[in-house]
Design a protein that fits this description.
The chain has helices spanning 10-13, 20-32, 46-59, 77-84, 93-110, 158-176, 193-199, 201-205, 232-250, 263-273, 288-294, 312-319, 323-328, 334-348, 395-419, and strands at 2-8, 35-42, 62-66, 89-91, 124-126, 130-132, 141-146, 149-154, 180-189, 211-217, 220-229, 254-256, 278-282, 303-308, 352-358, 373-380, 383-390. With 421 residues, the protein is an alpha/beta fold. It has three domains: 2-176, Molybdenum Cofactor Biosythetic Enzyme, Chain A; 180-256, 2-Layer Sandwich (Alpha-Beta Plaits), CATH 3.30.70.2860; 263-419, CinA-like (Maf protein, Alpha-Beta Complex). The strands form four sheets. Strands 2-1-3-8-7-6 form a six-stranded mixed β-sheet, sandwiched between helices. Strands 14-13-15-16-17 form a five-stranded mixed β-sheet, with helices on both faces. InterPro entries: CinA, CinA-like_C, CinA_C, CinA_KH, Competence-induced_CinA, MoaB/Mog-like_dom_sf, MoaB/Mog_dom. This is Putative competence-damage inducible protein. Belongs to the CinA family.
């Protein structure tokens, strides 16, 4: 089935808000095995929105429309869809009661005396629509089926849209398909996208069912293997040989085969299984590495401390970096990264330390040490490994790449010293 995404909102057209919903929904549609051929962004204009919806209905089976379901005057998605599809708007008692309960709780916490009148607009539902309860806001999702066409309306805020999509829309899309689709994600680190493409070239060239697709992330490459069949058992049977072959080819680089698996989560599992503790020592990344790790539930069992030693004085005070090293080699050097990694373990008595020092830019670079130069060191079981990187891009990109590279080196050292030694 052909699906089309329509993102509603003038703020999206003007670039005031990044359209993260489109990227998310595109990936989820691919996971469901739907053919996504078109994406459109349209402003809060009745005529242009109506034209966009009519065009989409003429060429696609499923329309996923996000945004424009709020209580303000320019939130007109529901009204336009109702007009295009020839439906009346009727007040839905269930939705009104949910809005009232939600707004009463909000009003009490915000000190409001009454519910704003415009919120009741959200209880108006196109006739015959299926209502999708929104547990995180007042705008419900909606599904309208008409002559083999399926129009799905979702709220714009990602924190409302994603849970609603995953819990109610994604299963519904599965019901529409006559085939069962099963996919397996294989996540890699420590290898570039071009190398992955080269190693998997014959598999990609020969693909039919199952298919294999690569997705480049910052410091990672993900492989999605997807099979279609009449039953789940048949689809999994088709999937198995290709998954096995991918694991054989990329074994050392695979950190997870779980859909929601993360690199930092897999590293914490490795450390936790051996009863090891970790400390991070950061300069140019300013705590981003520690933040990635702390985002994982249960991180407190492993992470002892996250040190941000931005100045040379703090590197000396908290990590024991030698004054002579900073003077002769500089803060951004192989030797400083080595001493930061060693000092992190010594000062905190942690088993493992990963350290980052570099020049994120846009200023501070020289011909000898340009912007993007980063040294990352890791101390594990008393052994220290340091790697030099020359990243490209702006400040944010350099810092993000540094964190991903640090996690990859950390995983490499933990495996070498505690699992493969």
């Amino acid at each position: 089935m052909i699906v089309e995404l329509i993102s509603v909102g003038t703020e999206l057209l003007l670039g005031n808000i990044v359209n993260t919903n489109a990227a998310y929904l595109s990936e989820m549609c691919a996971r469901r095995g739907l053919s996504l051929y078109y994406q459109t962004v349209v402003g809060d204009n009745w005529e242009r929105m109506a034209e966009t919806i009519r065009t989409a209905l003429g060429r696609s089976d499923i329309l996923l429309i996000t945004g424009g379901l709020g209580p303000t005057e320019d939130d007109i998605t529901k009204e336009v869809v109702a007009q295009v599809m020839g439906r009346r708007l009727l007040e839905d008692k269930h939705t009104r009661e949910r809005i009232q309960a939600y707004m009463e709780a909000y009003a009490a916490s915000a000190g409001l005396k009454e519910i704003p009148e415009n919120n009741w607009k959200q209880a108006q539902i196109p006739e015959g629509a299926r209502v999708l309860d929104n547990e995180n806001g007042t705008a419900p999702g909606l599904i309208l089926d008409d002559g083999g066409k399926h129009v799905i309306l979702l709220p714009g805020p990602p924190e409302e849209m994603r849970p609603l999509f995953e819990e109610q829309v994604y299963p519904y899309l599965g019901e529409l398909s006559q085939e069962v689709i099963v996919s397996k994600m294989v996540k890699l680190c420590g290898i570039g996208e071009s190398s992955v493409a080269e190693m998997a070239a014959d598999l990609i060239a020969a693909q039919s069912n199952p298919t294999i697709a690569t997705y480049a992330k910052v410091g990672e490459v993900h492989l999605r293997i997807t099979a279609k069949a009449e039953t789940e058992q048949e689809a999994r049977k088709l999937l198995k040989p290709l998954v096995r072959e991918v694991k054989l080819r990329f074994g050392p680089y695979i950190y997870s085969t779980e859909e929601k698996g993360t690199l930092e989560g897999s590293i914490l599992d490795l450390l936790n299984d051996k009863g090891l503790t970790l400390v991070t020592a950061e300069s140019c990344t300013g705590g981003m590495l520690a933040s990635r790790i702390i985002n994982v539930p249960g991180a407190s069992e492993v992470l002892k401390a996250g040190l941000v030693t931005y100045s040379n004085r703090m590197k000396r005070k908290y990590l024991g970096v030698k004054k002579s090293t900073l003077k002769t080699d500089g803060a951004v050097s192989e030797k400083t990264a080595r001493e930061m990694a060693r000092g992190g373990c010594e000062q905190t008595e942690a088993d493992v330390c990963v350290a980052i020092t570099g020049i994120a830019g846009p200023d501070g670079g020289t011909e000898e040490k340009p912007v993007g130069l980063v040294y990352i060191g890791c101390c594990a079981a008393g052994k220290i490994k340091v790697k030099r990187f020359q990243f490209t891009g702006g400040r944010a990109k350099v810092r993000s790449q540094s964190v991903s590279a640090a996690l990859t080196l950390l995983r490499e050292c933990v495996l070498e010293q505690y699992y493969h030694s």
